Amino acid sequence: MEDAYKTKLCLPLTAELVGGLAKMTEAIGSADWFDAVLNLLGTVCAIDSGGAMVYHREQRPRRILHRFNPLERALPEDAYLSGPYALDPHYQLFAAGCPNGVHWLRDIAPDDFFQSEYYRVFYSQIGLSDSIELLWRIDAHSALNIFIERSIRHAEFEAADMVAINTVLPVIFAAAAKHHELTAAASRRDSDGLTHRKVQSTIENFASSLLTQRERQVLFYMISGYSSTLTAQRLNTTEGTIKIHRKNIHRKLDIGSQAELFSLFINCIPFAMLESPVDPLEAYQRAPSSARGIALLEPAALRV
Question: What is the total count of domains within the chain?
Answer without folding.
Answer: 2
